[in-house]
């Protein structure tokens, strides 16, 4: 992690994620209230589903799988969308393996949570692997974005897990032209696609005094490839959340 030699005072933050739905809680709302700062949300990328007709060409059969690995809420949405398009009734016996509890709870949008077999890790995919290994006899389905980096599939293959990749959605760069004359003290990114969107919309972007926060190593790598400075990074051993990482930075802490 590289800590910038700049003033740690932050008055405005742009979170590169969609604004939480009305009534939905967010740690960033708490941050804004606690620190008396401006926090805005803007999706730098958005997700579009792969049409069922295109999915059929992959010859992946939903009915052939007894368990699903879900690494994002988008994966949840598009698995059940695809099941509906393919006229596949997801059986009550289906097992769900989610990267974290938030994704697991999101399943309530589609299933009766307490009546299903649901497992979840703490934060990253490796946390989930012990649970998957305990269920090695299952045939897993892994819903993915067309832009996935293949790292999860490599882990599954190295552990001899029987699984199928299923490309069900893709990320598309959003139009951010209305932000051309808007400045924020801190930009928060959660994926390499967010950095790609930044430069697609603003090819002449210069960081100058703007602070940058990143989630995950792949996002950090994308920032460094653009010769940008990373001021805030999460998750870290003592900093499990982005909110905590931002608070530490604002307080002048380096861990």
Describe the overall structure:
There is one protein chain. This protein folds into two domains: 12-44 and 176-250, Rossmann fold (3-Layer(aba) Sandwich), CATH 3.40.50.10090; 48-172, Rossmann fold (3-Layer(aba) Sandwich). It has helices at 27-35, 52-56, 73-85, 101-106, 125-133, 151-158, 192-201, 217-225, 242-250, and strands at 12-15, 38-41, 45-49, 67-70, 95-98, 117-120, 140-145, 163-173, 186-189, 211-215, 232-234. Helix 4 links the parallel strand 5 (95-98) and strand 6. It has 255 residues and is α/β, with parallel strands linked by helices. The strands form two sheets. Strands 3-8-7-4-5-6 form a six-stranded mixed β-sheet, with helices on both faces. It has a five-stranded parallel β-sheet with strand order 2-1-9-10-11, with helices on both faces. Helix 7 (192-201) packs parallel to helix 8 (217-225). It contains nine helices and eleven strands.
Keywords:
single chain; 255 residues; alpha/beta; Rossmann fold; 2 domains; five-stranded parallel sheet; 11 strands; 21% strand
Topology:
Elements: E1 12-15, H1 27-35, E2 38-41, E3 45-49, H2 52-56, E4 67-70, H3 73-85, E5 95-98, H4 101-106, E6 117-120, H5 125-133, E7 140-145, H6 151-158, E8 163-173, E9 186-189, H7 192-201, E10 211-215, H8 217-225, E11 232-234, H9 242-250
Parallel strand pairs: 1-2, 1-9, 4-5, 4-7, 5-6, 7-8, 9-10, 10-11
Antiparallel strand pairs: 3-8
């Amino acid at each position: 992690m590289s800590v910038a030699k700049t003033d740690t005072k932050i008055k405005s933050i742009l979170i590169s994620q969609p604004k939480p739905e009305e009534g939905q809680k967010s740690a960033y709302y708490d941050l804004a209230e606690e620190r008396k700062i401006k926090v805005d949300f803007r999706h730098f990328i958005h997700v579009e589903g792969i049409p069922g007709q295109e999915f059929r060409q992959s010859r992946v059969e939903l009915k052939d799988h007894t368990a699903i690995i879900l690494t994002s809420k988008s994966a949840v949405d598009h698995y059940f969308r695809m099941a509906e398009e393919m006229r596949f009734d997801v059986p009550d016996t289906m097992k769900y393996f989610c990267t974290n509890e938030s994704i697991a709870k999101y399943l309530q949008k589609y299933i009766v949570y307490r009546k299903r077999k649901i497992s979840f890790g703490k934060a990253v995919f490796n946390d989930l692997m012990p649970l998957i290994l305990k269920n090695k006899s299952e045939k897993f389905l892994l819903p993915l974005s067309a832009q996935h980096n293949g790292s999860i599939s490599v882990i599954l293959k190295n552990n001899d897990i029987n699984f199928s990749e299923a490309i069900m959605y893709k990320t598309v760069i959003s139009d951010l032209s209305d932000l051309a004359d808007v400045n924020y003290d801190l930009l928060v990114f959660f994926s390499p696609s967010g950095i790609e969107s930044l430069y697609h919309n603003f090819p002449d972007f210069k960081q100058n005094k703007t602070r940058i926060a990143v989630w995950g190593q792949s996002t950090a790598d994308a920032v460094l490839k653009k010769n940008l400075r990373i001021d805030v990074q999460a998750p870290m051993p003592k900093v499990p959340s982005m909110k905590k990482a931002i608070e530490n930075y604002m307080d002048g802490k380096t861990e």
